[in-house]
């Protein structure tokens, strides 16, 4: 059962004023998996991420992490506990070099500068940034900055990594480059939960996918079962779309 | 604490309200600039000092009564404010909050010390025939210049309200305040609107300076006394709110007058600073977190 | 921190320590000591403002607290000046911590942090101006009693070396900060607070460490000032002049760098001296130039004199 209770989001709702951004969402992330969280724009995915990583408090519901209730625990303590996240809009430390950017993450578990720098350089190698270590982070391309974002989080040596649209804004060849990096991270022992719009990558990477629409989880399962789910198709394409699509398929 | 008969306290309250209206006018300029440009103008106090010297020179050199000096000083200070925003603050800010902080600080240092170099640190005041005249209100005596200040401050606020509400310029200013990008898209020259707004804020100071001078003094540091007061009012009244600035001004005027009565002139200032600190620290985060 | 990190600091300290052997005129030594005191105050500001990105407009609160602490402990309680000086620094650090707790816990940053620090300094100024223990508006005079064990010296050069030792100590402290975990986390918070928090940085405690350290260093400048000039009043100790000086020097010389505050302090005060000889003693002229310089460096990135020079060379 320990596989099931790695990360467990239980009945989480979040209200901003009159808007219910997340409504009674529950799902699980199994240890060692790559799990996807998908859904149309405005479905509440990023809010849910913010709650799981301690940046927002849920209005109701709980987040359980390895058997412990972590609801409302601040982000820096969650990072200490092994739960790291990236941001959809990449957040490099603009005045610092790539090496120093990653080292900020590495300093979490290594007090000495030399150790932190060594960890940062190892992580940079894992995500393919070895050649850019001395550049200022602000000087990188979008794809480069996405890698820095990934590397900073990895340098905290997490057990669970929350990736918020790490592929958004990349061209197809850049996506192809980064997919194996994500897989290698998981193979290195880090469980991954990713919000993603690039379906090709989701189908490719994820074992389990949860679909969020209008703040609710409307489907869960393997990528292939989920994309065939009429409820999911309707959520993406509008009411009646599933029927029209299956009609078209039969015709 | 001493105790006073009620009519003394009532007189202090009324005098506080009268001065508070002029404070409100000073804060009005600050809050308008904040509401539209979303910047904190540290040079506001120094610009007020400059305006007070302007009014002083108008009286001592040209023999103009401070109330008459409003007429030339308002356009002059509007132009000055326009230029300062357009050619100094705007280009230096590059969208960075801390740049604006530093540039307006630099501006206030230049103005304050420039005035110090020219006029030295002597405290100056004007002698007008009506300085000591009083208006009787029942048993209470109110200084005539303060009553004028109160009336004109409200008049200016009213004019401003009409300008913002009913003219094309006012509509453009409100559009920019609400949605800068959108306003730019429909063809509003945002930089021009910013400069106009800054000009209006500075012109408010010119009026306030002329109203203050008959019952106040001027020295190169006089603006410092006002700048924290003005910030307190702006924060208290809600950043960017015009009626809030006036109400906040009245409130602070009364607080200052009463704490001066009970704690003496110099300790009385502490009341305002403490309110300021408390409001900053404990006001719900929405106000301050929003722009983070 | 490696020996190589410390080499430039050692070089600076050695060169500066030799100066009194050549410069013996009292007015020049006086100028150099005053400049070093300003540099020290500015080094304090640089820790919080330069590395941490939290711009304080009220470092007078720390300068004045240590200055008054040093003076009052001697005058009213007969404490020896050296422990009084140390206690003054500790008091300044404590004030830093308290202001930090209040301001950072409420999430104040940017202009609001600047405003609230300014307000704190003003509260202290008004209080010191009317309280009995600080001598009210008349101020405090430390008794002249020239003995080395009393932190007063026959020769100004001795005082110069003490000031230099403190500035050097602050340089080493800053270099350590730059190379340390705290420093990396502080810069991360400056650049992007939420990103730093996501990486396990406890932003509040990092900022609190910075403001406490910052208060202590600027406090050391205040205690030194009291001990050198032997006179204090509220407008000196808690006046806006020192808040402005402490901020200007690092901004001009390079905020968030080890040598920035010292470089800026020397540039500013050399400039001020030079203007004095040029136009005579007109009050305020030096500050007009400082202010104009501030506007200029902000106008043209990267916002400090070293940056400006690089720009012109290109």
Question: What report would you give on this structure?
Answer:
The complex is a heterotrimer of chains A (251), B (292) and C (314). Chain A is α/β, with parallel strands linked by helices and 251 residues long. Chain A has helices spanning 45-52, 75-80, 98-106, 113-126, 142-154, 172-187, 199-205, 223-227, 230-237, 241-250; strands at 7-16, 19-29, 34-38, 60-65, 68-69, 83-85, 160-164, 191-195, 208-213, 216-221. Chain A folds into 2 domains: 1-82 and 159-251, P-loop containing nucleotide triphosphate hydrolases (Rossmann fold, 3-Layer(aba) Sandwich), CATH 3.40.50.300; 86-157, no CATH class. In chain A, the strands form 2 sheets. Chain A has a 6-stranded mixed β-sheet with strand order 6-7-8-3-9-10, sandwiched between helices. In chain A, strands 2-1-4-5 form a 4-stranded antiparallel β-sheet, with helices on one face. In chain A, a hairpin with a 2-residue loop joins strand 9 and strand 10 (216-221). The longest helix of chain A has 16 residues, at 172-187. Chain A is globular and about 60 Å long. With 292 residues, chain B is mainly α. In chain B, helix 1 runs antiparallel to helix 10 (242-263) and helix 3 crosses helix 4. The longest helix of chain B has 32 residues, at 6-37. Chain B starts with 5 loop residues before the first helix and ends with a helix. In chain C, helix 2 (26-51) crosses helix 11 and helix 6 (156-179) packs antiparallel against helix 9. In chain C, strands 1-2 form a two-stranded antiparallel sheet. By secondary structure, chain C is an all-alpha fold. Chain C is 76% helix and 1% strand. At the B-C interface, helix 3, helix 4, helix 9 and helix 11 of B face helix 5, helix 11 and helix 13 of C.
